[in-house]
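One thing: can you check what follows?
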Amino acid sequence: MKIRALAVLLAVSASVALATSMSVQVRNVKVRATPSQLGRVIATVEYGAKVQTGALQRGWYPVTTADGKKGWLHESALSTKPIAMRAGTSDAATGVSDDEVALAGKGFNEQVEAKLKAEGTLDYTWVDRMAAFVISEEQIKEFRAQGNLPGGAQ
């Protein structure tokens, strides 16, 4: 009996030891029920949020969100580096949008955008149009199926 209890304790300890805290490095991301872009959405986590992750599996991490929801996030949405929402020790104040925080974290802000627009080096017409596109999961499934792409039959 003691050996069985010890084995269970070791298994639980190993799984806890494998869990890693990671930060969401994209504006917002959907936590999926399965490791697939077409998996059912369980939750949405915002830029800078911390999640607990398990071992990477084919590009997807099993995650647990701060409110205890379990699902999967693609590795491209996560970073092992802590994301500082602003200088100092606390998170960002509510004076800026998630978009502004994400872009500023990449060195792009309103001043840089204004300078580039003033120089006439950038035309944001199509960027603004593409940002407004909303593609449903059904449209993605249809696109994948028509192109014989992985996940098209899911």
Remarks:
- The CA atoms of residues 39 and 133 lie 21 Å apart.
- The mean pLDDT is 78.
- Helices lie at 2-18, 98-105, 110-119, 125-131, 137-146.
